[in-house]
Amino acid sequence: MVAVRTVISSLAEKPVDAHDVYLRLHLLSHRLVRPHGQNLDGVFAHLANVAWTSLGPVAVDDLEKVRLNARAEGLHLAVTSVDKFPG
């Protein structure tokens, strides 16, 4: 695990990376900023697609490895969607 420190100097500026995007979404989710109170232009360009599964989110590139590991442990892995957000 690696700690990441993210500082947004101005919510009026576009996000610069995925850390910036997740912090802005966190602020919005916890109602610390008003809807439309920050610039979210280009957020999707900074986010990777994720396989949302019955065992939690999995990087798309790791899906088959995780599926095989789950099977070896007697677990069933069901993919519910592949997207930037759970669906």
TrEMBL record:
Domain of life: Bacteria
InterPro entries associated with the record: THDPS_M (IPR032784), THDPS_M_sf (IPR038361)
Domain 2,3,4,5-tetrahydropyridine-2,6-dicarboxylate N-succinyltransferase middle, first and last residues per copy: 47-86
Any coiled-coil regions, as ranges: none
Name of protein: 2,3,4,5-tetrahydropyridine-2,6-dicarboxylate N-succinyltransferase middle domain-containing protein
UniProt lineage: Bacteria, Bacillati, Actinomycetota, Actinomycetes, Kitasatosporales
